[in-house]
Amino acid sequence: MTDIEILKQPFTLPCGVTVPNRIVKSAMSENNADADGKPSERIIRLYERWGSGGTGILISGNVMLDKKALGEKHNVVVEDEKYLGELTKWADKAQKQGSQLWMQINHPGRQTPKNLNKETVSPSAVQLSMKAVFGKPRPLTETEIWDIIERFGNTAVVAKKAGWAGVQIHGAHGYLVSQFLSSLTNVRADQWGGKLEKRAKFVIEVYRNIRKKVGASFPVGIKINSADFQRGAFTEEESLQVIEWLSEEGIDMIEISGGTYEKSAMMGTAQKESTQQREAYFADFIVKARKRTQTPLLLTGGFRTRSVMAEAIKNNELDFVGLARPFAVNPQLANDFFEDKMDKITMKPIKMGIKFIDSKGFLDIFWYTEQMRLMGKGKEPNPNLGAWKVLFSYIRNA
Is the pLDDT of residue 274 over 70? Predict the structure, then answer.
């Protein structure tokens, strides 16, 4: 088979749903909702644009399950059916040309800027090192933990009712699920903390609750860290074990990523030299994961060459290729691959010339968010957008 034929192959998930091809637009935070977390026309327009590009799955930016727990000021919030009409329109517009829209469901835990919420919660009272930005959390109570588990399921039910094709639990990048898994941020001494089995109880219960509510034939996936890349935090071996447990539970797709706000490996900062030819940031880990599970695997981060993507699928290292930032500058990316209009993605480095800022990778997030805003306004992406202009725009709108 040619590279194009491999990437265009459909794939049937364990729940029985068939995805039209192997390209996934992985989650990027749009941070562009209307007041009170209402899905905006801008976001709907953005996904309609992406939906015309031939991608198999479009995963939304993190949708918050509680308006009292925001990760960003303009997150979409789905607590109930209040915005069912907007969510239905979002799904209809995004999926009208064959792409499948999945909702990424999230709770930020301690990763919420100061003063954004009335209080910050986490498994334990462990504060982020960036204390000027993030406040000290208080530990969640037993009742609150079960309430959040219920909220994950309730949000998933609304997504299904609105016509979305699937949901993804955000269990990576240092958000609440990730905080429970890490022994650095979870120092509880009850049934939710301690040895890995107890730290993993939260994510297992979240999955079970969602599955119970949406049924066996609705796709449910998770995004999980390969590791947190911090001393004393969630390790590779622990991740592999949690992947095994989730596979045994029957989850439909596992997306591999890595890192947290404190160690942003998902931006490529922890890429090993040995993986550079294979492009993906977590290429070594995905091989280990495949040996431990036959659950469909999605790998996101670093892929740029069509032949490399196809080779990874051909070698049975993974089942889906995740791309995120490239879609912010080329919404037709999948079709360009399939129609042989391009075989390699070229990405412009986003640099200000200030080492501390450039090394963190957060300016990249602002730059690509601005590209999504442009498409949400019905405009074209601007690859020549200046880094300083983006920074000033972010400060002005924060």
Answer: no
